[in-house]
Amino acid sequence: MAKWMARLTVLAVFALMAAGALVAAQESSGPGMMGGMGRMGMMGGPAFVQRHRTFMRQGVPAPYAGLRNPLPDSPATLRRGAELYQANCSACHGVRGRGDGDAGKGLHPPPAALDTVARMPMPDSFFYWTIAEGGAPFGTAMPAFRDTLGRDDIWAVIAYLRAGLPEQAAAPPAR
């Protein structure tokens, strides 16, 4: 089992490296055969690849290790996550999480394509670490939210991302 996991990890790292190369090639030469996927490519952008590589080698920092989302999987949690995402994340990451928000257009590296990243099989602790610590350790402009958002707020955003950024979550509950 351990040998299988080691091989899978190596394959995942190679896939991320290849995706990073594709992103770099796409950024320098335009959409080409990738069909205009935009500046994020397939894997969320080059800074995400760097963060993921760090995670694969070292795990998340100790304060975040083993964290799991304690919030219920409910419409209320998704609504709260949608509200917080729109207020704190969409300006850079875009309304649908594609990394195409107006405030993020001039950033280098560009904001991650969260619609792609959220579908990856990453533990909750990875997403919590990413939001809490921001992008400074990886040379991005993403602010750290650990002092801005409460724990439950960060977890609500993660629940919203993991649900695929559903448009209906942002709507008020039906009466």
Based on DSSP secondary structure assignment, what is the total number of beta strands? 0
Helix-strand category:
mainly alpha
Distance between the termini: 51 Å
What is the CATH homology-level superfamily of the largest domain? Cytochrome c-like domain
CATH names the topology of the largest domain as Cytochrome Bc1 Complex, Chain D, domain 2
Largest sheet: none
How many structural domains?
2
Q: What's the overall average pLDDT, rounded?
A: 80
In the predicted model, the low-confidence regions spanning at least 5 consecutive residues are 13-42
| Shape designation | globular
| Alpha carbon gyration radius | 16 Å
The SSE order reads HHHHHHH
Q: Descriptors for this entry?
A:
2 domains, Cytochrome Bc1 Complex, Chain D, domain 2, 175 residues, mainly alpha
What is the element layout, followed by pairings?
Blueprint: H1 2-29, H2 46-58, H3 75-88, H4 90-93, H5 114-117, H6 124-133, H7 151-162
Helix pairs in contact: 1-2, 3-7
